[in-house]
Amino acid sequence: MKKNLLVSIFLIAAFSTASAADKLRITSFSTILTEIAEKVGGDHVIVSGLVRPGIDPHEYEPTPSDLKRVGDAQLILTAGKHLENYLNKLQEASGGKADLLKVGDHLPDLTMKAEDGGSTALDPHWWNSVRNVEQATRVVRDELIKLDPAAQADFAQNATVYLAELDDLNRWVRSKVAELPRDRRKLVTSHDAFQYFARDYGFSISAIEGVSTETEPSNRRVADLIDRIKKEQVKAIFTESTLNPKVTKEITRETGAKIGGELYADGLGAGDASTYAGMVKHNVATIVDALK
Ligand SMILES: [Zn+2]
Fold this sequence. Notes:
Elements: H1 2-16, E1 24-28, H2 31-41, E2 45-49, H3 64-71, E3 75-78, H4 87-94, E4 99-102, E5 111-113, E6 120-122, H5 130-147, H6 152-177, E7 186-189, H7 195-201, E8 204-207, H8 219-231, E9 236-239, H9 245-255, E10 258-262, H10 276-291
Parallel strand pairs: 1-2, 1-3, 3-4, 7-8, 9-10
Antiparallel strand pairs: 5-6
The structure holds zinc ion.
């Protein structure tokens, strides 16, 4: 009797979760995509998030051990929209054995003027729009179904649950932003990462740096920004830990705007920003409460 029970427990355990060898091995180069892949893939996947929370994805370079993981993966997820400049390294490490899915390339593009004022650059920060993350969830779901058709029903069900959570999140953002009169929806951030957010929720934006965190702002850019903040009576500006504090100090001194707080522009972080919903809520609450 006892033995039979143990055998049953063993069988239930063996059949209710795919064994490690059967699981789809995924490497992810975006903290947002790591969450999506884990939520949608559930028991059927093993996700290695190689760009970890708190890492600046503009400056990240894959390490030899990251590339070893890539060599063992069946699916590589990248943010796309030209964010990663190491795709050739990934392809080389994988030897063509894995699918490389540049998720952002399946989402609508927004561009920004480059600092020289002439050329435009593609904005890679699609995840700051909840609607984009919903679309990215569908893109990842369809890819997982392609790679493991036997698990289609689970992937579809998991995606439906996660999409409902994102829908609730989007509703929360809309009601929080509604606390802010339209003429106060002016967002000044350290680097230009919130265009998709601004499009969704009716903000105008200015950034101290460009779309990348790698370039230092020119004196002219800072001077223009100071003029605009004064003219539009912007109450607060928002920083990230990567920005040169001297520049922020100059702007707050010249304009009287206060520091509204730190935003998670480039992906998940620590504490309350360790989930996508937590990150978005932190950002939106910080923005709205400082500009009110
Ligand atoms: Zn960025």
